[in-house]
Specification:
The chain is mainly beta. The protein contains four helices and 20 strands. The protein folds into three domains: 68 residues, Ribbon (Seminal Fluid Protein  PDC-109 (Domain B)); 115 residues, Jelly Rolls (Sandwich); 99 residues, no CATH class. The radius of gyration is 22 Å and the shape is globular.
Length: 295
């Protein structure tokens, strides 16, 4: 699906069966896995790294996706990075009508969809700094406007992509004077479950380690975190069986869950831990939904 990018795939030299590797050497495999591997022992010949890691006593350790492909692995915390701008060209080959950008550090994201027959059918630029101007980020007077630290949106979703079959999507992510970071690009077909009710609960799971020794000295090792969300969803009575079937079919599938499109805190990439539907009224029901995000 990824047909072009301005991010080079040159993290390390590509694995070669005729090259002798010493313990600790790195290589990449481009043709199939697009991943980085590290030699656990001295290696000469043998299976390619992506095959070897499946052996009982592997000689290679899988480290991560290559820089270009970190935006498309299932780890939101691993980010494709490049100075100033990142471009991707994606040919889905299937119908998609929605997309999400996760764990971003950038100023803007432009998505252009081009159909071979109808030409350009979509052109949207997402301003990742817009919430700073509209408030809610600690800016309440002229002093804080000019001198306070500002925050950029880290997640963004859109549900208005025209569902053409053979489109090519051109993505341009920019950060003039900075380094663009892209944690995840997810595309698919949206499914509406119901209306998120007020008072959802959001938070994170922090996997950092905090240890206190016998003298009271605290040592903190910062590690990844994952988002979590609990919400009540208003669903129509006629949709109860459909909603239950949809959730049952995606019980072990990673999805982008969107509580509110204009509130990045309610965008979580992960799976649902639990749901329950309370049928209290003739025309609608209340579903409690608990979402667990990925690191």
């Amino acid at each position: 699906m990824l047909t072009d990018s301005n991010v080079p795939e040159d993290d390390h030299a590509e694995w070669d069966v005729g090259t002798a590797y010493t313990t600790g050497d790195n290589c990449i495999v481009i043709g199939t896995t697009h991943k980085i591997y590290e030699a656990l022992v001295d290696v000469t010949g043998g299976d390619s790294p992506e095959v070897d890691v499946l052996n009982t006593v592997p000689k290679w350790l899988e480290i991560s996706a290559t820089n270009r492909w970190k935006a498309f692995d299932t780890i939101v915390g691993s980010q494709t990075s490049q100075a100033t701008s990142i471009t991707f060209e994606i040919t889905p080959g299937v119908i998609v009508d929605s997309f999400a950008f996760l764990n971003m550090d950038c100023v803007s994201i432009q998505v252009v969809s081009t159909d071979p027959v109808d030409g350009e059918v979509y052109n949207e630029t997402i301003d990742m700094l817009s919430t700073v101007i509209t408030g809610g980020s600690g800016i309440y007077d002229w002093y804080t406007y000019f001198f306070s630290s500002y925050f950029k949106k880290v997640d963004a979703v859109r549900f208005d992509l025209p569902p053409f079959l053979d489109t090519v999507l051109s993505i341009t992510i920019t950060y003039p004077g900075g380094t663009v970071l892209c944690g995840g690009i997810i595309m698919g077909v949206q499914s509406y479950l119901g209306a998120t009710q007020y008072s959802p609960t959001i938070g994170i799971h922090d996997y950092s380690v905090k240890q206190t020794d016998d003298y009271g000295t605290v040592t903190i090792v910062e590690r990844a975190y994952s988002k979590k969300m609990t919400a009540e969803v208003l669903i129509e009575s006629s949709s109860i069986s459909d909603v239950q079937s949809i959730l049952a079919s995606y019980r072990s599938t990673l999805l982008v869950w969107v509580g509110a499109e204009n509130m990045p805190a309610l965008i979580v990439y992960g799976f649902y831990k639990d749901f329950s539907i309370l049928i209290s009224y003739p025309t609608f029901a209340i579903m409690s939904l608990e979402i667990e995000g990925l690191t």
